[in-house]
Amino acid sequence: MDLKLLLISTLLGVICYSSAQQEGNECIKANAKSCGECIQVGAKCGWCTDPEFLKQGEATSTRCDELESLRKRGCDGAKVENPRGSQQVLKNKAVTNRNKGAKKLRPEDITQIQPQKLTLSLRSGEPQSFNLKFKRAEDYPIDLYYLMDLSYSMKDDLENVKNLGTQLMLEMSKITSDFRIGFGSFVEKTVMPYISTTPAKLLNPCTGDQNCTSPFSYKNVLKLTSNGQEFNTLVGQQQISGNLDSPEGGFDAIMQVAVCGEHIGWRNVTRLLVFSTDAGFHFAGDGKLGGIVLPNDGKCHLENNMYTMSHYYDYPSIAHLVQKLSDNNIQTIFAITEEFQPVYKELKNLIPKSAVGTLSANSSNVINLIIDAYNSLSSEVILENSKLAEGVTITYQSRCKNGVTGEGEMGRKCSNISIGDEVSFTISITAKQCPKMGKPETIKIKPLGFTEEVEIALNFICECDCHKNGIEDSEICHNGNGTFECGACRCNEGRIGRHCECSTNEVTSEDLDKNCRKDNGTDICSNNGDCVCGTCECKKRENPEERYSGKFCECDNFNCDRSNNKLCGGHGRCECRVCICDANWTGSACDCSLDTTTCLASNKQICNGRGTCECGTCKCTDPKFQGPTCEICPTCPGVCAEHKECVQCRAFGTGEKKETCERDCSYFNLIKVKDRDKLPQPGQAFPLMHCKERDANDCWFYYTYAVNNNTEKEVHVVETLDCPAGPDIIPIVAGVVAGIVLIGLALLLIWKLLMIIHDRREFAKFEKEKMNAKWDTGENPIYKSAVTTVVNPKYEGK
């Protein structure tokens, strides 16, 4: 498993290294023919202007390379073209620090974004970054336009809106001292639901005895004003209208409010549009139902404050509305009844800087809805930019309130901003290429819903400074067949070669090819290049670090000897397949060091006087000595005693060095074995010493000491001590043995006494029985005759 992991990690390392080599040398891979082309490849690329820089066989494009590579190849830093981007701030007015109640300022005198104008010079691949500051100003002016659906279903809502002006003025005065309000109304295109209705129905579309005004698309009732009473009066004069289908023509009205700035009276301040309805909406394409096929043109068509082209242009699309609302810095508040909340919440997601509030059935909560929506919108700042030129990219990084940061799309915005809070953004702009003709471009960045913006002029670095000093029709370029600039010839059309010496019609000439064959051989440019104008131009390798060179491309810088898998051991450079070693290195692969400091022993002698220093390593002449400087003798007398204390403390935790063991005795590897038979034996690749030492308790321990082929010290030790019986245990054993003997003797005497008593009792008993016997003493009482008499029961004496 470990081997597999090692192989995988090695393979990944090789792949990553190869990838880095190729990606890191995009300069050479680009095959740039001029300095201008070179610097457009990437920010890492430079161009060597030294006329003598190129080696024989190298193409002009090899002047373009990474800066460090050019330096290593011998190009003086003063002769490297490497222009860098720059930036200049042209207008940097500080953000306004203003408190409510302070001296009133004109809207154009209030600054919420800084800086306001700057110029960036962009080099391809090199980002230019700057910081943008935004501060939400206190007491900032507000324009609010109330756009209301006057279809019949909104009749009760109109009654509540009639007093909206003075009440809203009072509430908004808590936020700003400069507030203006306007009013507009809408119903529907007059051609849509009434195509088949009578003229009388058009005059009064309501049913029964209800008195309604004729339907209309959009009417600008009141231009923005600071007179709340005028708002109440004009709104009080409005009448309800009607139509037959549920969706209304509100999109037509929103478009006109957005683009008719002079009629509405918008100022360059916070612009709020309150859209109030209890129905859905028509959008682009619905006009076909009434025979209207022309798309909305997004222009103002108000005459006498009435939209006059509703019958001519279709409804605008949602995308068209988003564009116009953003262009005119209008933030939209949808005041919608509960029934259509889901529809308008989806619409809100498509319109930046918009909010949705739930309108009560009779619009009684409209003031609170507007205040809440305004606070929600104004507490968030979202940056947007104008269209970018081809090849230009922009990134944002935000630093918001309470240390919150964001990147990517989240880097464009900050939330929960209160009045007086300051946030900042880091904006980076990068050009991937020069635009056509290299003309300057201008982009603008602004917070959505605000009129202030940052104007950024982009200038592109597409040519080197040395380009200005080019000599047209230079004699250097084969009698005027090109322009000599930046150290090389830029050939006129139809001419090629390093010095423009050939016409494109002569490239394949057989006579010229002869000059590209080495020793009149058959291979053109050693099969490593192309013959151009009788001169070899060597091919490029897949790895840009590897190059062919020479008059016939017979040389290269990658086929030299290697050491440790490194070309020329990493201590030299490969020139024409031969290693040119750095100082203090020699050998075909530059792998032999001439530095003898690594061979100095502690006595300052080379190899301790017992060897020679070869390639920075000691070769010991005395086989008994080992180590980097021939100072170690594993088999010399005194070795065992030298290491005894350390072996004892590490193996058994005893001895004089027990307390300092970790500090003083970590110089060898300790291996424990079970018994003496497991210890290493003589005859292996390196010499070793067998040791037998005794500790303070007269216990013996056995070990071997050696220095292996990697100059590592190894100690093998038997893990158990060999402890013989000591003199202090003999008296104890003798006492135990004496005790056992005495006990044995006592038991034997007792047994003998009992046997004597038993025998005497048995003898007395025998004598007594003998005296009492009734039989003759001459006859054996236990004798029995051997004759047996048997009587036949059938015998009757006959």
Automatic annotation (TrEMBL):
The record's annotation in Pfam families points to: EGF_2, EGF_integrin, I-EGF_1, Integrin_b_cyt, Integrin_B_tail, Integrin_beta, PSI_integrin
> Residues of the signal sequence?
1-20
Query: Which controlled-vocabulary keywords does the entry list?
Result: Calcium, Cell adhesion, Cell junction, Cell membrane, Cell projection, Disulfide bond, EGF-like domain, Glycoprotein, Integrin, Magnesium, Membrane, Metal-binding, Myogenesis, Phosphoprotein, Receptor, Repeat, Signal, Transmembrane, Transmembrane helix
Its predominant location is: membrane
GO CC, sorted alphabetically, is: cell surface; focal adhesion; integrin complex; lamellipodium; melanosome; ruffle membrane; synapse
ATP-binding keyword on record: no
The GO annotation for biological process reads: cell adhesion mediated by integrin; cell migration; cell-cell adhesion; integrin-mediated signaling pathway; muscle organ development
Which family does the record claim for this protein? Answer: Belongs to the integrin beta chain family.
Name of the protein: Integrin beta
